[in-house]
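User: My collaborator sent over this chain with a note saying "see what the structure looks like." That's all I know about it. Can you take a look?
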Amino acid sequence: MTTNCSDRTSQRMGELTIATIRTLTMDAVERASSGHPGTPMAMAPLGYTLWSRFLRYDPDQPDWPNRDRFVLSDGHASMLLYSLIHLAGICEVDAQGRPTGQPAVSLDDIKQFRQLASKTPGHPEYRVTTGVEVTTGPLGQGCANSVGMAIAERWLAARFNRAGSVLFDHDIYVLCSDGDMMEGVASEAASLAGHLNLGNLCWFYDNNHVTIEGPTSLAFSENVADRFRGYGWNVLHIEDANDTATIARAIAAFQERNDAPTLIVLDSVIGWGSPIAGTSKAHSDPMGDAAIRETKRAYRWPQDAQFLVPDGVAEHLRQALSHRSKPLCKAWNETLARYRCDYPDMAQQLQGLLQHQLPDGWDKDIPLFPADPKGMASRDAGGEVLNAIARKVPALIGGAADLAPSTKTKLTFEDAGTLERSNYAGRNMHFGVREHAMGAIANGMALSHLLPFTATFLVFSDYMRPPIRLAAIMELPTIFVFSHDSIGVGEDGPTHQPVEQLAGLRAIPGLDVFRPADANETAEAWRTAMIQANRPSCIVLSRQALPTIDRNRYASASGLARGAYVLADAAGGCPELILLATGSEVSLALAAHEQLTGTAVRSRVVSMPCWSIFEKQPLGYREAVLPPSVSARVAIEQAAPLGWDRYVGAHGATVTMDGFGASAPFADLRRKFGFTVDHVVNVAREVLEEKS
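Assistant: Without extra context I'll predict from the sequence alone. Here is the result:
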């Protein structure tokens, strides 16, 4: 009898908690006059069931490394997550993981939904709100991020778990929408997840048949369940998203399997809960006072109450979450303590990962390349540098979108191995021809303590711009390698010759874009990117050979660490002309400098491999490199001119691309588009003449 009474009490508290999530959503969206109430209300039973009965998450240690991850891929449903964080009593931690003594999301924070500087922005933002695992909003991204998280868990388990000492065995849960299912990035990621048999990954698909424009039948009629079965997923179907008992059985079924990812399809009616199912009002609009009152009445809720959290509700969810998770977290810490004694070297390596610290001596084997007029492609140099670093940094993991032989990003040392379903400890990843998902998966890996890199051709950075942008927003140290950086691709023609991509990448705030001039600048680009704990990097490399600059004659490549530096200077350091260049055009600028010097023109060559880093240097340094008194300037880059006006000014000129490339041998392209010593020298003389 006691048990039955307890069960009935728990059921009543569950129903009350679900109603609280729904009413908090209504009130927050209405006060903000902005937001999406439909999905948070429809998925409240799922959120409650997952968090109260299954999610392993200690509210007092929200950065516990072996916690389960909950990813809200349909980030427009953010009020679901904020309500759960608030009711679960998750404690806020700062950027160093220290408790602040404040709740992660207070009731006042919910009242400030979508307001300036609040902890409840319109879409969940990583680093802004404790409990938010990843910034979501652009549909499909969170789905793909979750695949990276699942891969990271498998890799961490394979590397660190020992018999009797299991440090990593967590699961990743994702809530996704019709919109996620339509976005190609989610499909790309799901395909790879199925291929890798990621049995630690569970997606909940809110099958509500509604998007912004109306019913999904306007543009979407495929059988999603069959598609995912084709990907190799286990698929379960729940006909009523309010049926918490069936939801619980489905999650339990997922946990019992380990051979494939799971998709749980939940049929729901978008709107504001079952009492008014079938409403035609768009799910992206505030409900309005009349609809809110009607819905609250259906919930037997005080119609005039706003932001009401009934007594016992928060305690109920927090206790349920804590009762299950605290013993697991405590046992994990005890296991880690034993692990430190039994496996001190591995424990030290793990601690470095969790604290984002590189191993001692990580860069000591980075090669120094001797001067060579024939030189080597910077992609080839990059491959050597990557392998030298990766031997010392075990968490440096990645691969290419089917282009590792062309981008030279394969880890070739003996124990690198391939990450595959039979070997999750491998470090070479094969993303397939899936650039978009590759970037988002890498971000998920970075969110789970790994140091991921990706690779493809620069022109295909357009396919992965959303995850690059999100890496910058989230301040993740993901490294994006791009080769085939210019018209140097030659015969492949304009479809493969990037022109506008450099300008587009440089426009992303918080992203460092490196275009190194030779092998030694490539080494320095990798060295600099590796120490950026809170910034993503793009390393842009050539297919064609670049002369390895004689650093005994010209300045050290270590100047790259400041973004731009004086590579060659006029006698006495008093130039009348400055030649600025990046990448393959730096050697062209040097050749033009030598010719100009021979005719008594005092020129300076500035290598500018990373504009964003240069812009962060003190004004004194920037003016020492680019003296304001020297207005005669020429920028040289096989890319669009956009942005160079900042450096050449009104009296300068650019030797750049004003259109797309062409299919021809590279030597012919250089002549056609003016990337020759004679043309650069002529432009420089014209600038000097105009100045005089």
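A starting point for your reply to your collaborator: The two ends are 100 Å apart (CA to CA).
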